[in-house]
Amino acid sequence: MKSFAYYRLPYADHYIALPDACTEVRLFHSFEQLEGCNGFVVAPFQVTDQTPIVLIDSCGVCQRLSYQDVPTKRCDVLGFHDNHDTYVSDFFQFHHQLEQHAMTKLVLSRTSTVSVGNCDSFSLFIRACQRYPRMFVALVAMPDGSQWLTATPEVLLQGSGHNYSTMALAGTMRLSGDELLGEGEHMRWAAKDIEEQRLVSSYIADQLKALSIAYDERGPRTVRAADLVHLRSDFTFQLPGQVSMSSVIAALHPTPAVCGLPKQESFQFILEHEHSHREYYSGFMGPLDQQDDGGLSSTHLFVTLRCMKIQNDSLTLYAGGGLLTESQQDHEWQETEAKMDTMRNIIC
Q1: What is the spatial distance between Cα 114 and Cα 137, in angstroms, rounded to a whole number?
Q2: CA angle at 104 for the pair 102 and 107, rounded to the nearest 5°
Q3: b/e per residue 286-300 (b: at least 16 CB within 10 A)
Q4: What is the pLDDT of residues 238-248, one digit of tens each?
Q5: DSSP for 107-149?
Q6: Helix ranges (DSSP H) in the chain
Q7: By the 8 A CB rule, do 288 and 38 touch?
Q8: Contact indicator for 156, 249 with CB cutoff of 8 Å
Q9: Environment class of residue 29 by beta-carbon count within 10 Å: exposed (0-12), middle (13-18) or buried (19+)?
Q10: How many other C-beta atoms are found inside a 10 Å radius of the C-beta of residue 88?
Q11: Residue 25 burial by CB count (10 A; 0-12/13-18/19+): exposed, middle or buried?
Q12: pLDDT band at 291 (very low <50, low <70, confident <90, very high)
């Protein structure tokens, strides 16, 4: 099966299509292999033989298309399956590590499976574009035959020329009632959310400093994503000539917003103890455009949040949340439910 990619940048009035008739697919096992490459990249949480980095190269052929008045089809929803008992078990193990001060923060994720009939993935993509103008939306057909759809608010790395930016995005609250009329500017944040966002911001600052990159940090501020709001800090910087883009990607991914702190210990703990296999959830995807001749580049890589894996008659939804010592199981479960609603709301 050939691969394709459709994507819509935040606030754009059109989407970009990389048609399968024109695409070439390459599989990589390190971020260094992306250096100098152009195309649409899909990276997993953990790079393995089963989940490699996928680069879809359109060889310069792409289409710019409107999504505003495109008709869509609804999926026939046949049933839902949530893994609440597994989540409770995982929460206990993760929270115990925090109580023992083995980790400062851990991110626990889970899945929910939706059985469907007559489900058209392109319709899901179009509805996501129409419903979520603030977010990066993408639909990708992978070499294994699955498709991944995301509508995500979090930038991993984007920019052109030598000017780049990234963000620290953490903390979550759901909007309701009259709050949905605004941008969440009047929401009051709990100490847990403020601390979680501070940890992510500090990590990004430390990673940029380690690469000798001077940066400007602004925030945190409240930003809206679908029916949720988050705390966000923005980092802008110039990429020095001696620092490669792939080294910045490797330093940032995975951020504490999807992994934890300390980074390597949290990453390994998640791989060993989390029951839901993340695959490409909490990885990143987006257009990667680099020039070998020193010319301008334009890159928009987003963390793969608020996503689903599409396979035949089932949709697997993914969501996670950052845990600190003061985290409570029921509250964290409800946060994952709120995040999954981003995808549920375009299914039916």
Answers
A1: 20
A2: 100
A3: bbbebeeeeeebebb
A4: 999 889 999 99
A5: EEEEEEEEEEES--HHHHHHHHHHH-TTSEEEEEE-TTS-EEE
A6: 84-99, 121-131, 191-210, 245-252, 263-273, 329-347
A7: yes
A8: yes
A9: exposed
A10: 12
A11: middle
A12: low
Q: Determine the residue type at 207.
A: Q
Q: What percent of the chain has pLDDT over 70?
A: 97
Residue type at position 230: H
Whole-angstrom Cα distance, residue 133 to residue 140?
19
Q: Cα–Cα distance between 74 and 61 in angstroms, integer?
A: 30
Asked if the bond preceding 71 is cis, omega within 30° of 0, the reply is no
Tokens found for residue 83: 């893994």
pLDDT in tens, 21-46: 777 899 999 999 998 888 999 999 99
Beta-carbon neighbour count of residue 208 at 10 Å? 20
Q: Are 226 and 342 in contact (CB under 8 A)?
A: yes
DSSP 3-state percent helix, strand, coil across the chain (nearest 5): 30, 35, 35
To 5 degrees, how large is the angle CA 215–CA 221–CA 223? 115
Residue 7 tokens read as: 């994507």
Give the Cα separation of 261 and 265 in Å (integer). Answer: 7
- Indicate the residue type of 29: H
Please state whether 203 falls in left (phi above 0), alpha (psi between -120 and 50) or beta: alpha
